[in-house]
Amino acid sequence: MTAIPQDAALVRITDLHKGYGAHIKVLRGLNIEMKPGERVVVIGPSGGGKSTLLRVVMGLEEIQQGSVTFAGKPYISAEGSKTRIDTEQRKKIGMVFQHYTLFPHLTVLQNLTLAPRKVHGVSRSAAEDRGRAILARFGLDAKADAYPSQLSGGQKQRVAIARALMLDPQLMLFDEVTSALDPELVAEVEAVILQLASQGMPMMMVTHDMWFARNVASRVIFCAGGVVVEDGPPEQVLGNPKEERTREFIDRVFHIKG
Amino acid sequence: MELDFSILLKFADALALGLWTTLKLTVLCVAMGTALGFLIGLARASENALIRIPASAFVEFFRGTPVLIQLFWIFFCLPLVLGVELSNLASATIALTLYMGAITSETFRASLRAVGREQMDACVALGLPRSVQILHVILPQAVLRAVPTLLSNCISLFKESALVSAVGMADLMFVGQNISNNTARPIEVLTAVACIYFIIAFPLTRLVTRIEGRMLRKLAA
Amino acid sequence: MDYTLDLGAVTRNLGPLFDGLAVTLQLTVAANIIGITAGFGLALLVLSRFALLRLPAMLFVEFFRCTPAIVQIVWFFYCVPMLFNVFLDPITMGVLALGLNLTAFNAEAYRASIQAVPREHLDAGIALGLTPAQRVLNIVLPQAMRASVPVLLTNGIGTFQQSALVAIVGVADLMYQGKTLATQTYRPIETFTIIALFYLAVSFPVSQLVGWLERRRGLAAR
Predict the structure, then answer these.
(1) Contact: A115, B128; criterion CB under 8 Å
(2) How does it sit in the membrane (chain C) (predicted)?
(3) A206/A174 Cα distance (integer angstroms)
(4) What is the pLDDT of residue B1?
(5) Given this model, what pLDDT does residue C222 score?
(6) Residue A2's pLDDT is what?
(7) What value does the mean pLDDT of chain C take?
């Protein structure tokens, strides 16, 4: 891992605007500064732009205005009607999606080794050794040669996390990774993420699971209407919000009648 | 009216020879037509209008006209256009290959489109360059998805190949009609011919259903 | 090539071609009326709980789907008069042969769309206290009908194209008139090209309509 000066931001999002078509505005001037080692959980009402924010940071979306820097260097910027994305920077970020998005025609191990082999020129045996080691860490050693269709949802999601880790990302993005899972499978995926958190992996995630958010986050951002409404430690934002809109949202989520 | 199916035994050899011609023609045109269809399918997905539009026009033409006319056109007109004699076999092969190319290009195009957007997102998140995306993620899935429909196309071609009897090629249908005319026993002979086609095509359609189920389960992940 | 195109040979003889087109369209429309109605009845038989109804219906469908249409048509024209001692005019024979073929293909289309109605919808119907007949009429059929429209249209246009096969047994359709004209005028290129365009002019708009319907359904399903 390249050393990042402790005072610099890992991700700096400045005045980010993002919409679809002429009329739908999802992000309206969003500013976030994420420091190295932080674990940021983004919460908020649906349609508030949480997932879009993560997709922008992954470099999957065009933006209309603003910029994103990564590790102190330019990463994404809007220039006129075009979006410039530095693909070298993008390679330092990993992402796990709600619907697993494993490659169904490849085995678990092939899913893990595809990118290291084809993008980074790692030899097959080295990539496979590394892959097996990560799978073992996640309790999936027996599944290396299985196809995704033979796995449970929880297993698929753990494989997806393992696949992203193969590239040694400096930031992990988790977009509602437990939302599609049966309740009894949520814990096994959350355990893997907590394991990463305990090892100091910087991460930014969107989740509806407030209990998990409190456990994993070092910082919680409440996003609504395409802007940051409240930003602070989990005890504040989840426990004792300062903003009225945050309080309303948290009350509704925990079914506390005002 | 007395039915006498025993006359079929007398003509078993001729029918077998006709079937052999039908099968040879089908296999030949399936192989060449699938290759052609793959190329046309890619051409139709091209961003270059000069490649895309002629490919689309080709497909619409072959799917929008009766195969019998395509066959007649190639049989009667192509020799005039090219100024060379074409054997029955050559005309039939060209016609059925072009037809197979048109229908399989649709199959390939549909299966290319069926590879979901989320798969592309995953490719970007893994930093896979375009060439790796296409070669290792999109094409393999598209081909797997296409397999059941391609098999259906083969069955269609096997059936359509009976049309070559209309231009005098001695396939199963042609032999059957000849025997039926010469013996004045159309019921026995034509029923037998229909049953031979059925016995070959029916198990293949069952196979398609089974493979389709398996592929969909596998690719649903 | 040493062949000079002469479209005049064809344009002077458009009359017979239009007569042929009228026969072709007549065959197509009549066969579609049979196929759309009888196909639905046959689909219900295929889905029947009683093997005595289901098995013969399935055999009928599979036989038509697994044999060449040209074999069916030749068989029909030669064998039906001998077997049943009925002698009908060629166009009626053509309509029946094409209609039975289309019935089998449409039955399969109806069956697939009926079975594609999610089981949960029937469960919801039971939970709402609908009778079995109400569940079929109000839940299954409306969805199945809508889903089957694109396939029925595709099959219908397929029959339009297959109708060219009746030329082989002497029905004076577009294909037959075209072939006759090509032989009489020694102008195969012009004639076959123009009748191919006739067929295309009918098929193409319908296939575009099917494509549009499917795209709209795809959007609605999202």
Answers:
(1) yes
(2) Multi-pass membrane protein
(3) 6
(4) 63
(5) 46
(6) 54
(7) 90
**Confidence band for A108, pLDDT divided at 50, 70 and 90:** very high
Per-residue pLDDT, C12 = 80
**Cβ–Cβ gap A60/B119 under 8 Å:** no
Take residue B184 and report the two structure tokens written for it: 């004045």
Task: Give the residue-averaged pLDDT of C40-52.
Answer: 93
Q: How does pLDDT run across C66-105, given as a tens digit for each residue?
A: 999 999 999 999 999 988 888 889 999 999 999 999 999 9
| Assigned superfamily of C8-216 | MetI-like (1.10.3720.10)
Residue A258 has pLDDT above 50, yes or no: no
Burial (Cβ within 10 Å: 0-12, 13-18, ≥19) of residue B169: buried
Q: What confidence score (pLDDT) does residue C43 get?
A: 95
pLDDT-wise least confident of A144-148, B52-56, C218-222: C218-222
Q: Which residue is it, tokens 């046309």?
A: B40
Closest CA of chain B from C10, distance in Å: 15
pLDDT score of A42 more than 90: yes
Domain ranges within chain C, ordered by starting residue: 8-216
The C-alpha atoms of residue A7 and residue A118 are separated, in whole angstroms, by 35
* Residue A150 one-letter amino acid: Q
Domain boundaries, chain A: 11-253
Q: Is the ipTM of this complex over 0.90?
A: no
- Say how far residue A149 (Cα) sits from the centre of its chain: 24
Could you name the CATH architecture of A11-253? 3-Layer(aba) Sandwich (3.40)
Measured at the alpha carbon of residue B156, what is the angle toward residues C175 and B97, in degrees to the nearest 5?
A: 75
Nearest Cβ partner for C2 among B68, B83, B166: B83
Q: Which of B73, B155, B161 sits opposite C196 (nearest CB)?
A: B73
Euclidean distance between CA atoms B56 and A76, whole angstroms: 38
Q: How far is CA B111 from CA B107, B147, B151, B216, C18, in A?
A: 6, 9, 14, 12, 40
Mutate to test the interface with C, among B2, B63, B72, B183 (most CBs of C within 10 A): B72
Q: Is the Cβ pair C179, B177 closer than 8 Å?
A: no
Distance CA A219, CA C95 (A): 75
* pLDDT attached to residue C106: 96
Contact status, residue B28 vs residue B71, Cβ threshold 8 Å: no
What tokens were used for A218? Answer: 């070092």
Question: For chain B, which domains are there?
Answer: 7-219 (1.10.3720.10)
Non-local (6+) Cβ contacts of A171 within 8 A are A10, A11, A57, A70, A92, A93, A94, A202, A203, A204
Distance linking the first and last C-alpha atoms of chain C: 54
CB contact burial B125-155 (16+ within 10 A = b; e otherwise): bbbbeeebbeebbbbbbbebbbbbbbbbbbb
Neighbouring-strand partners of residue A202: none
